[in-house]
User: Fold FadR family transcriptional regulator from Rhizobium changzhiense.
Amino acid sequence: MTDKDNAVFNTFQQAPNLRSNLADMLTARIEAGDLKPGQRLPTEQAIMATTGVSRTIVREALAALRAKGLITTRQGLGAFVSNDPTPRSFSIIPNDLQSIDEVLRVLELRMGVEYEAAGLAALRRTQEDIDRMQDRLDALDKALEEGGYGAQEDYAFHRSILVATQNSYYGRLFDTFGNIMVPRQWARLDKMTSAERKRHAARMRREHHAIFAAIRDRDEPAARRAIRSHLSKSAARFEELRDATV
Assistant:
């Protein structure tokens, strides 16, 4: 590895999620132009020697970059920066959410999108939208009452809010999240006592019902407050979980 190659990795920090940290660092270097289109990346062995991470971590990071179209591999030659590495589409893939900090970043993004969407939905929703939201809310309630995670039902309810904006771009953007927006492995319901699970389910129902009621009643300010409160409380719960495991 040349001195120039070493410079690409000299800011690498071994965060708790090494794969994500390495992938983020490489992505930043590609987007900044430090690694140019067509340029060959250092070998796996060279990256391991420079960063101190394992071969598995290096391969997982490179796989994440391939999935995003940022690099290509050539049999026997190694990995190369794509000729046009600018992402053509945005997506969040399961491997992006391997730590609570990454989940919090997604929640932060969602808050910006859904805060505006909830306000628009309150102004523009139709009766068909309300019926759809009620159906999704009932399904979420049922899943929670049965002791489930309700991840798919949660996603469907939130997506119905974006559909109610009458702006298809909101729904299309939300589809990049899919139901991995709150990964099941972080819900930790299996670690809760029966009483804690009941409190969790009651809190989730209360927060979602407040959002629905505000949109149903065409109360734009209340809809914005309800969605912000819900996502802020979700973020706070994940922060507590993260801090408890440090």
